[in-house]
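Take one protein record:
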Amino acid sequence: MERKIVLLLWALFFPLIGIVAQNNTADYNQKMLKAGLVDIQSLDDEIEVLLKYATEDNFVGQNMYGTLRKAFFRPHFAKKIVEAQRLLRERHPNYSLLIYDAARPLSVQKRMRKAVEGTPLTAYVADGARGGRHNYGVAVDLTIIDGNGQILDMGAPFDHFGREAWIGTDKNTTLESYKAYVEWQRKEGIISDEAARNRTLLLEIMDAVGLRPYAKEWWHYQERISMPRTREIYPLLDF
């Protein structure tokens, strides 16, 4: 009898858990706008968006964003991405940027950090206490797609945490040094000739608009300022 009551209560309340979880994320769009961020596709609707953390195809293996599907950024940062799209189209009219991640609520960051605590992946996920650049709306994860919507070969998939995903080391700080690292990867057979060309293209486009990569993630680009400075000048997306 008691077991039947427990099962009945579970059947009644389990759907509510899902509803609560969805409601907790359903207003991310409004909170992003209220925080002064802009939807990148409101500036250029030809930039493609597929938020990986709004799917289960990510290192956590679960949807972290609920119903959020739009890529939000600080307005000045969004303009840099729009300019990068323009430069890309100048060189390859059929190519387009595809955004994998943008501004990230701090609550999501904390859940992501908790998921990797005590593992080697901890180094790749910013501390949920103060957040990383995504939590300030000034970082982007992206790649390039061709005219058929096919993702260009970059030598390693998004969220790959091996050396194949590196674009440099902590010693690399200039475009030329990053390109030299990519050339070394190509010569060593770490990535293919095609992947090297595509990584170099993305490096050149993003460098031209004033953004630099994170050395261990070919897909991640950010401003050329320190993390302490980032925290000084931008409000944290603490929701």
User: Anything to note?
Assistant: The longest strand covers residues 139-145.
